[in-house]
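Researcher: Structure prediction, please.
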Amino acid sequence: MGRISKRKGTALKEIPEHKKQHFKTGIYARLSSNNDKKKNESVEIQIEIAKKFVEEFNTKQNRERMEIAKCYTDLGKTGSNFNRDGFRELMQDIRFGDINCVIVKDLSRFGRNYLETGNYIEKIFPFLGVRFIAVADGFDTGKLGNNTKQIASEIKNLINEMYVKDSSKKAKIQLKQKREEGSYVGGPPPYGYLSQWDGKIRKLVPDPCTSMIVQLIYNLFLEKESYAGVTAELNRQKINPPAIYKKKKEVYYLAEDNNYKGWDKSSVERILQNQTYIGTLIQGKTSITARNEKNRKAKPQEEWTIKKNVHQSLIDSDDYKKVQNIREKIQRKTAMHKNAAKSYPNEEKNFKLVHYCGEHGRKISEKELMNILFPFMRMVFAIYLKKIKYYIECGKEIIEKHKVKIQFRQKEIEKRLIRAIEKEGTLYIDYHEGKITEEDYISFKTQQEKRVIDLKKQKEEQEEKLKKIEKASAKYLTDIRSLIKLKNETDLKKEMLENFMEEIYVYPGKRVEIILTFASDYRKEGKVIWEK
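Model: Predicted structure follows.
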């Protein structure tokens, strides 16, 4: 007995910590955007299962040790592709050498795409020196003999991929059926409406608080024929825009709130073009591929689901047609301005910035144009040369205000993006726990994805605006220096005029519209109409 005890003691001798192979472990958990109805699929449960595995592993193993470096999660993300924020962060840490072991609850939590999942497990992870473990499947690339499980894991991944495609197909069929029945399958109802269930049909009903605001917008537009006019009146009355109303459920701005966030042209235009307000539902304009939920594609109009008179209208059809006619007229006018005819050919040596507008506008000679421009520019110089210093300070102040405004807008969009992503995750938990139906969740998700894409586009637009302001700031100082030099000039030259003009539009009757470079970037007064 003594000998046996001695041999056992030798076999169980603890290996020093520094001689053990250490694994910097990353736990990855994903909550599917499809039909995961099992309670043990929640990210918290998945992480706990992985942590328990690590704890037991460290207790049993004598030559290896795992240390949990970080947990990575993707909430409400499909397993059909790897375009997920949490997974991208995991891969970045792997490339930096911070992680060399990945643990998931099972293969389906890692991914349901057969080809991509197999590529990561069999090629990418081994190349990067990463050990991969799927706890529930007993899969561990660090164990001898796991190559024999390759076929089994391939079959399981293939089944997972078939499952996600089948679920996606069923969801699309259900959505199409709901649309054909006249059910509203979008996310939050359009401004001016609420949604309520009529049996199995989700219908839109007028919102007693905001339906009158929609009618006011149409009446104002018919009266003013201007987006800016409508926007100004809504902001004068301190009416909260749709996003604020949705959040606070207050039609009008409250004094105790922070800064009033008013309407803009795009929010007014969206309401004026929406056929929902005449009782028509247009749905199914886009589709999502099974392979990538973010790959939203526009469908041809003949594939849209259009149902008329499915709910109470807020706007008379005749008034809606009148509004569309006004919008088309505004669009034509804008297009004429943007797509004005090009300037004279270079060989005529005329101004490069001249555009001739209108079907009956005729080209005028350089001499005629100079006779129009010189008196005007002399008047402009006479005004600004007297207050150069003031104009410099004023311009800098305006530029800084523009930058602050854009940066503030960027932060607001970032916050809205974060809230949108968080809300999607919260709603999935509600669906997972049976608080909302599958139809409601799919409807919301479709609308939410569209909103996230729109917010990202807005973010890019703000970044582009900030770049333009930075560029305009440098240009502003150059223009001011040119103005100062003009004090010593006895005559104005064509090249100098071009330095101060951004565009010149010539209309019939020698009516000239001039947009000045040193003003148009910062203030509306940059546009000047001048007639000879």
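Model: The chain has 16 helices and 15 strands.
Researcher: Thanks, that helps.
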